[in-house]
Amino acid sequence: MEDRSKLSVSERIEQRTKGSGSSSFTEKLMPVVFFICALISILTTVGIVFTLLFETVTFFSNVPFADFFASTEWYPFFSDPQYGIWPLVNGTLMIAGIAMLVAVPFGLGAAIYLSEYASEKVRKTVKPILEVLAGIPTIVYGFFALTFVTPILRSIIPGMDIYNALSPGIVVGVMIIPMIASLSEDAMSSVPNSIRQGAFALGATRMEVTVKVVMPAALSGIVASFVLGVSRAIGETMIVTVAGGASPTMTVDPTGAVQTMTAYIVQVTQGDAGYGTPIYYSIYAVGMTLFIFTLMMNLLAHYISRRFREDY
Question: What beta strand segments (E) does 76-183 contain?
């Protein structure tokens, strides 16, 4: 008889499951199910990219490649259509920049408070409440920007357009705050307490420990949260559609109306263009541009996370 005391843990589990037919069947079936789930996810991603690429090629068979990237005029609905992408890129980056000016200081400040100053009880209470902001539908944020934030800004800045870049930019920043706060707080909380205690033993104040010890140690996670926040702001759709307007112009004035890449896609898909027309295919070219932007931001976040990661 085999001596069970000499068997490893995995061998004991395997020997135990042999005694049950249903358990053995389940153990063999589940890896196949999990593999199918992973395969479906990969094939779905490949299918989306292939569709985007195929329709983008169709667009560029009707519109010169140079016009798309060299022109600063975006008027696809005119009798003499212009397809210069830069006004849409300008509007997208302007709103993303305003959003980050709001989200970074408030999000990082909230992360520092939750990680270094708040008690465990307060942290467990405040953090879920903060993360509730991330669950609010973006269309609600859009109406909040149009009906609440814009009137306040117009009372401060006379002559400001009802549709402008500043209002949706601020609200997109508010929407991103939970993401930056949560990811940065997780990165800072993962720094071992022994490092903090060592700094305190050398006479450092809590602020000095936070700024000079904890934040440099958690730099990869903090910067990655910023980059992912930018990526989220670039891809935001409903807020900029409701409150940003539909004027694709090359301007740096945030008080005027702009149009982002996502807002243009929404405009065309509402039925303003016929199927098979250059305008219809232009949404795929814009979508590919947006995809490249967000892909670059995600790759940058991945690189920063790997480059500055601290292992404890």
Answer: 82-83
